[in-house]
Amino acid sequence: MTTARVYIARLAGLPVYDPNGDQVGRIRDAVARLRTTNRPPQVVGLVAEMTVRRRIFLPMGRFTSIDADAVVLSTGTLNLRRFEKRPNELLVLEDLLDRRVTILPEETPGVVVDLAMETNRTGEWSLVKVAVRQPSRRLTRRGQLVELEWDRVRGLIGLTDTQGTAGLLAVLEQMRPADVANALQEMSDTRRNEVAAALDDERLADVLSELPEHDQVEILAVLDQERAADILEEMDADDAADLLGELSGPDRQALLDLMEPDEAEPVRQLLKYTAGTAGSVMTSEPVILTPDATVADALARIREPQLPPAVAAQVFVARAPMATPTGRYLGMVHFQKLLREPPSEIIGGVVDSGINPLRPETPLIEVTRRMAMYDLVAMPVVDANNRLVGAVTVDDVLDHSLPPDWRDRDVPDEPGVPVPAPPHVVPPRDRTDG
């Protein structure tokens, strides 16, 4: 086991590998056990986010190395029971990062920016060092960063109303939106709302799309209405429509009225469709080009980094105008077809018009059947006048085919149903260090 000092904030997001070199998850936090004496808390394990969207406990005795690039396990046998913090434990990053503390004996204030753990001769890990940033006397400079012994910092244990968000945001910034959403669900309501409010509009919009509906509504409710409208503008129109659909009629209308008209209009249109149909789950902003565009034009469009993979997998071809609802729908071109054609080729000459498009009222079960039949990641949706109004992507279908609470971290595991596990992982046992 590596015995050098380990800074815990730097562990967040590191991959976890089993002895065979297979990645089984990523580190999200460290678990420290409080002691009855004034000794520093003992670090008993790390919390890892597994590929099956659950957090589990990994005892410190199970690691062969912990370094700046990865964490390696000494065994492939893992306890898959979902991690739950015990009363005498704390999560180092969630509970201690950004806390406002007092440095002893000077009685000067500071903010926790990181914590370090070290091992003793018996292999026990403890939180021995605290990195604290002192306030600067000049507004234009950052305060001095000092590293202190645990017992020189007062205010680490106690109420969380002295905890800020800057350091935690820096850790969350390294995570994907879905992982941030999972982290928010592990926090108290107050802490979650503070962190959500501190995220920028685009980032919060991405994270909200990954949260269960009830959490989306609760976070939106603590924002002022103008900011809530800004967040909705940053969301994909279909995700914004799903969220607004959870609100009362007056609240929904108030937010739509605060949105920019060109951002609100596609959301209003999606809200008109019946739940459980193609229209209710489609995106109204697929990649659309006219038939005189070239293959080079199409490839440039699908390379745009903000496009989700399922949306960028194909180009839909229609007569002008290109904003939905378009002119007459002509067909689609998959990106693999584009890669095989000369860049100067006109896409009107390579368009596939052999697959009948969906109608907005097509039931989701029929949408799923047809996408599976043709091995498609997206299908066009047209109105009665054969105008393209949107596209249903495979992630839309999956999202609405799973149980409504599939994103909720509080849903208990179903008895008798095995949990999908990465290679070399066995079913749950009691949480021990052995």
TrEMBL record:
This protein's record includes keyword Cell division: no
InterPro entries: CBS_dom (IPR000644), CBS_dom_sf (IPR046342), Mg_transptr_MgtE_intracell_dom (IPR006668), MgtE_N_sf (IPR038076), MgtE_transporter (IPR006669), PRC_barrel-like_sf (IPR011033), SH3_actinomycetes (IPR058838)
Signal peptide region: none
Keywords linked to the UniProt accession: CBS domain
Source superkingdom: Bacteria
SUPFAM superfamilies per record: CBS-domain pair, MgtE N-terminal domain-like, PRC-barrel domain
Gene Ontology MF term list: magnesium ion transmembrane transporter activity
Short name of any one Pfam family annotated for the protein: SH3_actinomycetes
Region (Disordered): 400-434
Protein's UniProt keywords contain Ion transport: no
Biased amino acid composition, Pro residues: 415-426
GO cellular component, one term: membrane
UniProt domain CBS: residue ranges: 351-409
Name listed for the protein in its UniProt record: Mg/Co/Ni transporter MgtE (Contains CBS domain)
Organism of origin: Asanoa hainanensis
Classification lineage: Bacteria, Bacillati, Actinomycetota, Actinomycetes, Micromonosporales
